[in-house]
TrEMBL record:
Protein keywords: Cell projection, Cilium, Cytoplasm, Cytoskeleton, Flagellum, Repeat
Region (Disordered): 1-60, 346-378, 712-732
UniProt feature, compositional bias: Basic and acidic residues: 36-47, 362-371
InterPro entries registered for this protein in UniProt: MORN
Protein name per its UniProtKB record: Radial spoke head 10 homolog B
Pfam families for this protein: MORN (PF02493)
Biased composition (Polar residues): 712-724
Basic residues composition-biased segments: 1-10
Localization annotation: Cell projection, Cilium, Flagellum; Cytoplasm, Cytoskeleton, Cilium axoneme
GO CC terms: axoneme; motile cilium
SMART domains named among the record's database cross-references: MORN
Top-level lineage group: Eukaryota
Length: 732
């Protein structure tokens, strides 16, 4: 038996290079953050109107990434000098399964072949490090597992005693896991590194000599994500960084971890349900060491635009600023301000007073002709966002007056455009949570509210034929509707002339819209908190409204509901009681529309819009008694957040809101909706019973038909025998 094995282990491998930081822990200040950016250093919100977009979101998380020193090096096998052996032998050599005790306290237990470790075995170093796996001629080779005293381990391919191929390393102390390719005991090739136990911080991509290099994706514990090129563990090349909590994104060229070169930085604003589009501020242009520097364009969420030169994150040099109202300033900018007007604010979010600023409008050739007019009569007075579409209305006028009438009514719209824009913005935001700039589309429901506030429904114009309350319209469609509404309302009161459209629109603006708009009435929209909560019930109520509408006899008219049908609905659903009577219901309807009911008469054939239908239900909800008084339950029921900071919990306003929420919830969820569901179930049962009775009747009829032919045959036979008998009797 050989006491000393002449075969020696290859030289000890060079200790593995430690992980450099898990990722460069941020870069110095660079690309600015736009409106409502949270400064991670201070935890406070930055006022961009005063900060002039000068702070930059961190490029990485504040948490320092741990060192790669946690990755243990693979120990080498010492000179193999066997002090004692226990196991199988063949011709005085270790052969088969056995245990070898080496000089220095190392132990091997496993397979031997002709005196060497060969096959599967477990090698334990004197310091406790273990290797279990395949051996080939005294060398770990193939697939195996290294285990260290602290619980760290490597499992994967091994070549000549070092990690080489595909394997997984788990660090016990720092919960770091690497799965991927290895080359000469270094992370090299494609792999994935998880930096925490929750797997919220990770890197997946290419590595070279233990460093992130090539293409890879890095996700930080905060959820921030970078996808792009790397070099020497930092972002370098083309890539995209997304700050999810801050709502920002940069896509472009990086150099040594900072934005440098051409790129686009976007600041996303919170999108509120119902708004027209996701709002954003966006800069596209040159970056130098993380700062806007060179030529670039900044697009504001409001529609304003700056295009020109930048220096250290500020407008500096020649540039052009287009305000959101279309006015243009071109000239020199110094330190983020106009050189000629240094005190003038350029935040782009508000329409400023331009009376003292040298501006000009876009060139006329940039305009487009509004639909409904002759394309050869010149450019449209209104921009593309306000172009009127009143072709059907113009067909009612003499052909030789149409172009002139269109031009004149455009002048009137242009004269009142500020008021109409403000009215559109105001009513389109009703029933919504606060938005950075209240950019919503006007819905039919909100249009109904506007027309009722302006008493248009009292001019003999029906509003009930408007379709779904959830359909929306752009500003230009709203302007066209106002013009058409003005003509239909007042054309009989105005003498026919070549200015009839102007006269009708001016009268509507003067007598209805300007004096009454924004004075919100009714029960749905006047209280913002009530409106936000009440909209939770609208969709279900719209289904019920459609179900109880009765077809209007006019062929072209839409289905509508009348006061009579509304009362019948309450009777069918058994909603009337001691508190809610027919008289109370009529009083609720007459609050905003006196034509529905008075002490001397009631008009049951008066049409009801869905808005009137829904507000009448809200009025009914206020009549009922409620018993639960816990604010928390109301929040949980409705799944809406009532900001506690708005009013103290014990304040009268909070108590009033709590009472209203409880009453509304109780009426809809415990009375109105269940009553409707019960009526549907009752109808289904009645229908099923009718079908069952019909089926039984058919079965009885079929059975009767089966019995009928037998009786007929008998009678026929008798009939046939009767003549024979008669003949026989005759012969006799």
């Amino acid at each position: 038996m050989a006491k000393v094995d002449k075969k020696k282990k290859p030289e000890k491998t060079t200790p593995e290079e430690s992980f450099s930081t898990f990722l460069a822990n941020g870069s110095h200040a660079g690309v600015v953050s736009e409106p409502h950016v949270l400064d991670e250093e201070s935890g406070h919100e930055t006022d961009v109107m005063t900060a002039s977009f000068s702070s930059q979101p961190p490029l990485a998380d504040k948490q320092l990434e741990r060192s790669d020193d946690a990755f243990h090096e693979v120990p080498a096998l010492p000179s193999i000098i066997v002090q004692r052996y226990e196991g199988e032998k063949y011709q005085e050599q270790f052969h088969g399964e056995g245990v070898a005790y080496f000089q220095g306290g190392h132990v091997y237990k496993g397979m031997f072949s002709v005196g060497v470790m060969h096959g599967h075995g477990l090698y334990t170093w004197a310091d406790g490090v273990k290797y279990e796996g395949e051996f080939a001629f005294n060398v770990p080779m193939g697939h195996g597992t290294y285990t260290w005293l602290d619980g760290s381990c490597y499992e994967g391919e091994v070549c000549s005693g070092i990690r080489h191929g595909v394997g997984t390393y788990r660090c016990a102390n720092y919960s770091v896991i690497y799965r991927g390719q290895w080359h000469h005991s270094k992370r090299h090739g494609k792999g994935t590194i998880h930096y925490n136990q929750e797997a919220t911080s990770w890197y997946e991509g290419e590595l070279v000599n233990n460093n992130r290099e090539g293409w890879g994706v890095r996700c930080y514990p905060s959820g921030n994500l970078y996808e792009g090129q790397w070099r020497n563990n930092v972002r370098h090349g083309e890539g995209r960084m997304r700050w999810l909590q801050l709502g920002q994104q940069y896509s472009g060229i990086w150099e040594n971890g900072v934005q440098h070169g051409q790129g686009t930085h976007t600041w996303f604003l919170r999108r509120v349900t119902g708004s027209q589009y996701p709002l954003r501020n966006e800069y596209t242009g040159d970056f130098v060491q993380g700062l806007r520097h060179g030529q670039g364009s900044f697009y504001y969420a409001s529609g304003a635009l700056y295009k020109g030169e930048w220096k250290d994150n500020k407008k500096h040099g020649q540039g052009k600023f287009i305000f959101k109202n279309g006015r243009i300033f071109e000239g020199e900018f110094v330190d983020d301000h106009m050189a000629e007007f240094p005190a003038f604010s350029l935040d782009g979010s508000n329409t400023p007073d331009l009376s003292g600023i040298r501006t000009h409008t876009p060139r006329p050739e940039d305009g487009k002709r509004a639909p409904g007019g002759d394309s050869g009569s010149g450019p449209a007075l209104l921009g593309p966002d306000m172009a009127l579409d009143i072709t059907a209305l113009l067909e009612n006028l003499p052909e030789n007056q149409r172009d002139l009438q269109l031009k004149q009514v455009e002048f009137v719209v242009l004269r009142h455009i500020a008021e109409l824009r403000a009215i559109y913005s105001f009513y389109s935001s009703l029933g919504h949570d606060q938005s950075p700039d209240n950019t919503f589309l006007l819905s039919r429901l909100q249009l109904w509210r506007l027309l009722k506030d302006c008493s248009v429904h009292q001019q003999g114009i029906t509003l009930a034929q408007i379709h779904s309350p959830f359909s929306t319209m752009l500003l230009r469609r709203f302007l066209s509707c106002v013009v058409v509404l003005a003509y239909n309302t007042y054309h009989k009161d105005v003498e026919p002339s070549d200015t009839i459209l102007v006269a009708c629109l001016s009268k509507l603006m003067r007598e209805n819209i300007i004096p009454n708009a924004k004075n919100v009435k009714g029960l749905l929209f006047p209280n913002p908190m009530h409106a936000v909560i009440a909209v939770n019930y609208i969709e279900r109520c719209w289904e019920i409204y459609k179900a109880f509408c009765r077809a209007n006899p006019t062929p072209l008219a839409d289905q509508t509901m009348t006061v009579r049908h509304f009362i019948w609905m309450f009777k069918d659903l058994s909603l009337f009681d001691a508190e809610l009577t027919t008289g109370k219901l009529l009083e609720i309807l007459s609050v905003e529309n006196p034509a529905a009911y008075s002490r001397y008469y009631c008009n049951l054939d008066l049409e009801m819009t869905f808005l009137e239908f829904f507000e009448a239900l809200l009025g009914c909800a206020e009549l009922i008694q409620y018993f639960s008084t816990q604010m928390g339950k109301s929040k949980e029921i409705l799944q809406v957040s009532t900001p506690e900071e708005m009013e103290p919990r014990q304040s009268p306003n909070a108590t009033e809101l709590d009472s209203w929420v409880q009453k509304t919830h109780q009426f809809f969820t415990q009375r109105f909706f269940p009553a409707y569901e019960y009526s549907l179930e009752l109808r289904r049962e009645v229908q099923e019973e009718r079908l069952r009775q019909t089926a039984l009747a058919r079965i009885a009829l079929a059975k009767a038909k089966e019995d009928t032919p037998v009786a007929s045959t008998t009678s026929v036979v008798i009939t046939k025998q009767s003549p024979a008998s008669a003949a026989k009797k005759k012969r006799k």
